[in-house]
Amino acid sequence: MRRRWVVLGGIAAVALVAAVTVTAVSVTHAQAVARRLPPASASSEQVLRVYLRAATAHDCGLTEALSDGGSDPTAWCGGRTPSSWFDDHPDLLGYRHIGAVSRLSARETGRSAEECIPVDITETNMNGADPGVLAGWQFCFRHTPQGWRLTDEGYG
Length: 156
What we know:
Helices cover about 35% and strands about 25% of the residues. It contains four helices and five strands. Strand 4 and strand 5 form a beta hairpin. It starts with a helix and ends with a strand.
């Protein structure tokens, strides 16, 4: 009976060490993402450029941190092969022609004021779109205490 307890105690000790290691890795990853975030004083265009670089690099941690939850924060992480025709794992392959910022009041959006910026993007695996260039795709940001964060995207 005592041997069984020693084995079970050893398993518990290994599980505890594994849990502490996973927690330490998560904190370290979160700290690494936080260091790459633009300062709260950055403009919406500066935040967009960081977001686009992160999305094309499949940096899901950074794209998620730059989103406010209003849009799918990992929508452009890509790097995954769809498993069926109905899978929607869009991948941002490239971007160019970042346009001028347009400002929308809270009254216009029905939520909070936003700044939207059109970008020509090259994508694949987006549900409802053929792979290729989508001209004028809008990335819309709202201002938070942490700075500008992606709140919506698309056309219109």
